[in-house]
Structures are given as structure tokens and as C-alpha cells.
Write a structure and sequence with these properties.
By secondary structure, the chain is an alpha+beta fold. It is built from three helices and six strands; from the N terminus they run βαββαβαββ. Bound molecules: zinc ion.
Length: 161
């Protein structure tokens, strides 16, 4: 007989901006600012991601679209690629994501796509630490403590053995 199992995820939801811890608020502001650098002529949807490194330094990136759609990059991967390239031993500890469409900041959070979840998962595996994921939208902020909450049963190098 098969067993019925459940996968669950927990996260914090903040509905008041004043409730946000200062470091989270600061990272969201950096993500919002990063969205201004988006190259999004096709979707008109600008996304910014800001990564806090273990030293406290913040690096950021935005989405970069391409006429050949799959050739573009999401903000999360732009920011993390920059962090990995330039600060290899200063590990990412959190990432905030903020988006802006033609009608402003969306009412619902924009969460990382499957590719970006896998990318964040790889980075957690490389560094051996957890990466807090902060999703901000107009009226609320969701905080996940690890990519495991957004990508359960993830594929990793452990899958090879
Ligand atoms: Zn993505």
C-alpha cells in the first residue's frame, strides 16, 4: 500500500512595512532599485534582485531579456552570478526580489521561476548554508528561510550518487 505523504513549507508574512527587520527592509529597497536597471523591452516587467553576502555587502541584478526569449536572464540569476563571479568566498545569505510592471508594483509577490530556484539550490549546496528568500510586493512581504521551502525534493550533486 502506498503511503500518503505531505510536503509543507513555512514562511513569515509581513503586512506592515514598519514590522520588517531593518536588514530585510534594506535588501528590499536594494532590489527595488535594481529593478530600475532591468532590460525588459518585451515583457515590460522589470525585476530586481538584491543579494546580501555573509560580509554584509549587497550586490544586485535585474532581468535582462532577449529577442530569443530563452537567452535572457532573470534578476535572481543575474545577481547571484555576479556574486559568485566576484565574491566567490563571501557566501550569499539572503536574496530579495522586487518586480514592477506597467501598472506599478504588483499586488501579488513574484516568486523565482523554476530555473532560479534550481540556481539558488545549487548555491546553498555549494556554500553549505541556507539562503533566505524575501519576496516583496505592494502590501506584503514573504520570507522563506531556505530554497527547500520553494523547491522540495530538489536535484543536487547528491542525486548523482
Ligand atoms: Zn528565474
Amino acid at each position: 500500500m502506498p503511503h500518503n505523504r505531505t510536503i509543507s513549507a513555512s514562511y513569515l508574512e509581513y503586512s506592515e512595512e514598519e514590522e520588517l527587520p531593518r536588514d530585510i527592509g534594506e535588501l528590499i529597497e536594494a532590489a527595488k532599485k535594481a529593478s530600475e536597471g532591468a532590460y525588459a523591452p518585451y515583457s515590460g516587467f522589470s525585476v530586481g534582485a538584491a543579494v546580501r553576502l555573509s560580509s554584509g555587502k549587497i550586490v544586485s541584478g535585474s532581468n535582462v531579456e532577449n529577442a530569443a526569449y530563452p537567452s535572457g536572464s532573470c534578476a535572481e540569476r543575474t545577481a547571484l552570478s555576479y556574486a559568485i563571479t566576484n565574491h566567490r568566498n563571501d557566501f550569499p545569505v539572503s536574496i530579495a526580489i522586487s518586480a514592477r510592471g506597467n501598472s506599478g508594483i504588483p499586488a501579488q509577490v513574484v516568486s523565482p521561476c523554476g530555473n532560479c530556484r534550481q540556481f539558488i539550490s545549487e548555491e546553498e549546496n555549494r556554500t553549505g548554508g541556507r539562503i533566505r528568500i524575501i519576496l516583496a510586493c505592494k502590501d506584503k512581504t514573504l520570507v522563506f528561510e531556505s530554497i527547500s521551502d520553494l523547491l522540495p525534493l530538489q536535484f543536487s550533486k547528491l542525486s548523482f550518487v
